[in-house]
Design a protein that fits this description.
687 residues, mainly beta, Ubiquitin-like (UB roll), Porin, 17-stranded antiparallel sheet, five-stranded mixed sheet, 7 helices, 12% helix
Length: 687
């Protein structure tokens, strides 16, 4: 408790315990002869009878309790008076009936016991009780039987623990006692009563802080960073907490070389006063200077400056270093980072020595799976995360499956000219065979975006891009069963803007999200025509208690400027599946052709409601009943007449990296051919 706070006692005597017992007294010198002029008179009678060795020892239950700090054989004396009133006497010895009941128990018999605390007079707060439960010898072994001697030893250790805990809160005259009480029953049981007399709480009579005079260049009163003052309790927890906050405050206020020494608390038990001394060397106010990196670093000092959230000349903040450390690790190119402030070129600046241990830049991954709606699927990828330095990742991905065969190359440059800004370039070739359409597509796309991530979740994210695709597509439309084949050349300028006011990226429990997407597109197929795709997504999360969150989602989409028949099937809206309306197959909701396959539409409407219950000792499990509804229409606005509803229940395991989701849903008003049950597994909540 007091390991981090030096506490010294004043030289004044502390009349809490009697002098050591006779067994601890050094041997007396030889007696001088009677005629010796230096002989001393006989000592007066102290009124203490020598023990009669023939008298039986007192029962164990009636022996006096040894207070904290005393040795065996000492008598406990009352403490000094407080404000003219004597301290309350600790719990009296047990009555003879309790002593007789305890004496009747076989001292070697293993017993069960329970622990009672009494007499704290408001000094035992929740923190003290929590610490006692964690450190108590009695509590740690209360599931095991023990004999009387073992219980007493544990109880004596706990009285010393209680005194230490109370002294840490400023009760330096604390005296704790142990008392055992036999409890009736077929199975002998003992109540261990730990009584405490905390005494008066010591207050700080003087607080001497050296080195925090004046104000910083930012206008911060330095002494105000250490709020402990005269009249506050001599509470080591509060003092250590204030000292830690002082270190943080100096680090955040521009003092990278601040040296805050350990506080020294001097306690005078006779005068019942406490004096606190603290010495601080601020090391001088500094602003950010240069960034230096080691030779093995995967990118330059300039790029480290791009990743950082500060610029040269800004006041030093320790939190900026912590943020930079996390951001460097998040690049995936770094295994370990050490950032050390160093003296700058002058007394007003601080340079940063960034030592980076590189991580392996290449990753090879594979995946094999089967789904009732997708068939077999094998996916493999190769990635080099620094193929185009700095942070230019090249990824090659291939998919071989029942419904998809594709080959894609992706260039992704993170922190492109600015922190969290990403440049994406993608070139791909894909053959897609869905119930709604078959398409052989080649295309190139590029985008610039501001991304969000788990390290720093952002309120606003955006994306601007361009896309060019050539697609040979086959579908059925109308009443004919003859497939038609058309070739589309599509140019698009997609953009998005999203506000995220939720409290967590993967597991939101309060707040809301609102986002919109807009994509003007030009299509060449039997002539040139244009249209605009627009979509809006919103979700809200309302905490209804510690373990219950009500979540809702709305999605609306429309395509204006062209009929559904002219728009390429790959550019239409679809609904159904794990990220849409659960219980239905992927893309299965909406109008269907003569072969009962979905054809998509120009408008989309979806609504979802979830009740997220959490349970378990750490709230690590969850159960989520849900209802989803969605509609697809060939018109520009969704209609309720084509609304399909699904319902079900989900299960969650809340891991360290986010919730693992398993949802089981069923259609409420299915169309012909819809399955009776759909199962969906993924990472993160459904929305």
């Amino acid at each position: 408790m007091l390991a981090l706070l030096a506490v010294t006692a004043a030289a004044a005597p502390q009349p809490i315990h009697a002098q050591p017992a006779a067994s601890q007294t050094p041997p007396l010198p030889p007696t001088a002869p009677a005629d010796d002029p230096l002989a001393l008179d006989d000592l007066p009678d102290l009124g203490v009878d020598w023990p009669d060795l023939d008298t039986p020892a007192a029962p164990l239950a009636d022996l006096p309790v040894v207070p904290d700090g005393a040795s065996a054989g000492e008598e406990s004396l009352p403490g000094p008076p407080s404000d003219g009133d004597a301290l309350a006497t600790p719990e009296a010895p047990p009555p003879s009936a309790e002593a007789d009941a305890l004496a009747a128990i076989d001292p070697a018999a293993p017993l069960r016991y329970r622990v009672e605390l009494e007499g704290f007079n408001g000094a035992a707060d929740e923190m003290l009780l929590t610490r006692f439960d964690a450190l108590s010898a009695l509590k740690q072994a209360d599931d095991d039987r023990a004999n009387i001697a073992q219980i007493r030893r544990r109880g004596q250790s706990d009285t010393e623990l209680l005194d230490e805990l109370l002294r840490a809160r400023g009760y330096y005259d604390s005296r704790a006692r142990i008392r055992l009480r036999a409890e009736a029953g077929s199975d002998p049981r003992v109540a261990v009563v730990l009584g405490a007399n905390p005494g008066p709480r010591y207050m700080l009579d003087a607080v001497n802080v050296d080195g925090l005079e004046g104000v910083s260049p930012l206008g911060q009163d330095l002494r105000a960073l250490f709020p402990v003052s005269v009249g506050d309790p001599a509470d080591t927890d509060a003092i250590l907490d204030a000292t830690a906050k002082l270190r943080v405050g100096l680090g955040e206020g521009g003092y990278p070389f601040a040296d805050v020494r350990e506080p020294v608390l001097t306690v005078d038990h006779q005068q019942r006063e406490a004096i606190l001394n603290l010495n601080v060397d601020t090391g001088g106010f500094r602003r950010f200077g240069e960034i230096k990196v080691n030779a093995e670093a995967p990118f330059s000092a300039r790029h480290v400056g791009v990743i950082s959230r500060f610029s040269p000349g800004e006041p030093f903040k320790q939190s900026d270093l912590t943020d930079l450390n996390s951001a460097l690790i998040a690049t995936g190119l770094v295994s370990q980072v050490t950032i050390t402030p160093e003296e700058g070129k002058d007394e007003e600046t601080v340079d940063l020595a960034v030592n980076i241990a590189p991580a392996p830049p290449r990753t090879v991954a594979g995946e094999v799976g089967y789904g009732t709606g997708e068939g077999f699927r094998v996916e493999g990828s190769w990635q080099h995360r620094n193929f185009f330095p700095p942070e230019g990742a090249l990824t090659a991905r291939a998919v071989l499956g029942t419904q998809e065969q594709s080959l894609t190359a992706i260039l992704r440059r993170n922190n492109f000219g600015k922190r969290d800004r990403v440049l994406n370039v993608e070139v791909g070739l894909a053959n897609i065979d869905q119930p709604a359409y078959r398409a052989l597509t080649a295309g190139v796309a590029a985008s610039l975006e501001r991304q969000t991530n788990l390290i720093f979740q952002k309120n606003w994210v955006w994306s601007l891009g361009t896309e060019l695709r050539i697609s040979d597509e086959r579908d059925l439309y109308g009443t004919t069963l003859i497939p038609r084949r058309r070739t589309f050349v599509i140019a698009a300028l997609p953009g998005s803007l999203t506000y995220d006011g939720s409290d967590d990226l993967l597991d939101p429990r309060k707040g809301f999200r609102l986002g919109g997407r807009l994509s003007p597109e030009l299509s060449l197929q039997g002539g040139a025509f244009g249209y605009v795709r627009a979509q809006m997504d919103g979700s809200a999360y309302v905490p209804m208690g510690e373990r219950f969150t009500l979540a809702g989602r709305v999605r609306l989409g429309t395509i204006v400027g062209a009929s559904a028949d002219r728009i390429a099937p790959t550019r239409r809206f679809y609904a159904g599946g794990g990220g849409s309306v659960r219980g239905y197959s992927y893309q299965a909701i909406g109008p269907r052709d003569a072969n009962n396959d979905p054809i998509g539409g120009r408008s989309l409407g979806e609504v979802s409601v979830e009740a997220r219950f959490r349970f378990g000792s750490l709230n690590q499990f969850g159960i989520v009943p849900f209802v989803d509804a969605g509609t697809i229409s060939a018109k520009s606005l969704p209609t309720l007449s084509e609304m399909r509803v699904g319902a079900g229940i989900g299960f969650r395991y809340y891991s360290n990296f986010g919730p693992i989701r398993v949802d089981v849903g069923t259609p409420i008003n299915p169309q012909p051919g819809d399955p009776r049950i759909g199962v969906y597994v993924s990472l993160g909540q459904a929305f």
